[in-house]
Design brief:
Largest sheet: 5 strands, mixed
Number of helices: 12
Strand order of the largest sheet: 3-2-1-4-5
Helix content: 40-55%
Structural class: alpha/beta
Order of helices and strands: EEEHHEHEHEEEHHHHHEHEHH
Number of strands: 10
Shape: globular
Distance between the termini: 21 Å
Low-confidence stretches: none
CATH topology of the largest domain: Nucleotidyltransferase, domain 5
CATH class of the largest domain: Alpha Beta
Length: about 350
C-alpha cells in the first residue's frame, strides 16, 4: 500500500511516498531556514506563503523520485495539527483536493503521532508497550503506546518545550539559526561541570517537565559571565546537560512501572548528541532496545506522516466519505487522541 504523506505544520514543506508504512520511497523536504534566519524565528505569514509556492513542486518531486504517479497512490496522509494554523491550512487544503480528485482515502494525522511513527521506518519494528519521548521546539512529552494508535500521556512540559529553550538560549549566545544544533555542537567542547544546572522541583505530577527556570538561569549566567570562548563552551555544555538530565529523569521509573519493552526518541531534539548517548546508556542499563530515527527523520517530514497514516488506515478503516474528506478541519492546538478501531 502506497501512502503519500504531506506535512506543512510549521516552516518545512515536505512530501513523501512510503510503502506499507515501512519503506521510504521518497522524502522531499523544502526548508525555509534561510527565509526566517534574519528574524531569529519562524514568521507564520511568511511560512504559509512559502508553502503555497513549493507544495505542488515538492509533491511532484516526491512522486517522481518514488517512481510512481498519483494513480498508484492508495491514500493521502496529512498533518492537521498541531502547528501554525496558516501553514496547516495550506497542507490540508491541498491534500483534500488531491484526495478528492484521485478518489483515494484522506487520512488525518496528528503531528506528534507522526513523530512517534518515524521510529517505525527503521529495519527493526518496536514492540509494545513502547515509551516515547517526543522532544521538539513545541513539544516535550512522555507517551506510552500499548498498541498501534493507543496513546497515553504520562508527562509533559508545564511551560516551555526543550527545543524552544535550546533555541532561545542559543540566540542570546549569538549562535546561528536554528540555535539548537549550534548549541549542541558548541557543548561538545565544553565542561558541563563548570556551570551546573540542578533538576527543578515541580509540584503535582512527578513526571512533568519545566524548562522555563533552566532557561532563565542560563540567561542570567550569560549576562553575568565574562563572554570568553571557554565560558561560552562551558555554559552550553552545562545547559545542555541540565536539559537532557531533566528529559531522562522520569524515564527509568516509567519503564519499570509500565513494563515498556522499548524506549523511543523522536522530534527535532532527538538529534541532540548528548540525548542520544545518555538514552543509549539508559536503555542498556534497563536491557531494552532504544529506537531513534535517522537525523533526516527527526525534524518535520512527510515520511513519518505517511507511516502514521498507513497504520491509522489499517486500524480504523477508510470509511470517510468524499463529503467528509472535504470537511476535514485542522487545529493549531489539536490534542493527541487514540485512534478509534473500525469494528464494522
Amino acid at each position: 500500500m502506497l501512502i503519500l504523506g504531506i506535512d506543512t505544520s510549521c516552516d518545512d514543506t515536505s512530501c513523501a511516498v512510503v510503502k506499507d508504512g515501512r519503506q521510504v520511497l521518497s522524502n522531499i523536504v523544502a526548508s525555509q531556514t534561510k527565509l526566517h534566519e534574519k528574524f531569529g524565528g519562524v514568521v507564520p505569514e511568511i511560512a504559509s506563503r512559502r508553502h503555497l509556492e513549493v507544495l505542488v513542486p515538492a509533491c511532484q518531486e516526491a512522486l517522481q523520485q518514488a517512481g510512481v504517479t498519483l494513480k498508484d497512490i492508495d491514500g493521502i496522509a496529512v498533518t492537521n495539527g498541531p502547528g501554525l494554523l496558516g501553514s496547516l491550512l495550506v497542507g490540508v487544503g491541498f491534500a483534500k483536493a488531491l484526495a478528492y480528485a484521485a478518489k483515494v482515502p484522506l487520512i488525518d494525522v496528528h503531528h506528534i503521532a507522526g513523530h512517534i511513527y518515524a521510529n517505525f521506518l527503521g529495519e527493526t519494528l518496536p514492540e509494545f508497550p513502547l515509551l516515547n519521548l517526543v522532544v521538539s521546539g513545541g513539544h516535550s512529552e512522555l507517551i506510552l503506546m500499548e498498541s498501534h494508535g493507543q496513546f497515553r500521556l504520562l508527562g509533559e512540559t508545564r511551560d516551555d518545550a526543550a527545543g524552544e529553550v535550546f533555541d532561545k538560549v542559543a540566540r542570546e549566545m549569538g549562535l546561528g539559526y536554528p540555535g539548537g544544533p549550534y548549541l549542541d555542537r558548541l557543548a561538545e567542547t565544553g565542561d558541563p561541570a563548570r556551570i551546573p544546572f540542578p533538576l527543578p522541583k515541580i509540584r503535582g505530577s512527578r513526571y512533568d517537565y519545566s524548562f522555563s527556570g533552566i532557561k532563565t538561569r542560563a540567561l542570567l549566567e550569560l549576562e553575568a559571565g565574562e563572554k570568553s570562548e571557554a565560558f561560552m563552551r562551558d555554559l552550553a555544555a552545562g545547559f545542555r546537560k541540565g536539559v537532557v538530565d531533566q528529559l531522562l529523569n522520569p524515564v527509568e521509573d516509567l519503564i519499570r512501572q509500565t513494563g515498556a519493552r522499548g524506549f523511543a526518541l523522536s522530534g527535532g531534539v532527538a538529534a541532540n548528541r548528548l540525548l542520544r548517548r545518555e538514552s543509549q546508556a539508559l536503555a542498556q542499563k534497563l536491557n531494552i532496545p532504544l529506537f531513534v530515527p535517522p537525523m533526516e527523520l527527526c525534524t518535520d517530514n512527510g515520511a513519518m506522516i505517511a507511516s502514521a497514516g498507513y497504520y491509522k488506515y489499517k486500524l480504523t478503516g477508510g470509511s470517510r466519505s468524499q463529503l467528509e474528506t472535504l470537511l476535514l478541519e485542522c487545529s493549531a492546538g489539536l490534542p493527541l487522541r487514540s485512534w478509534e478501531v473500525d469494528v464494522g
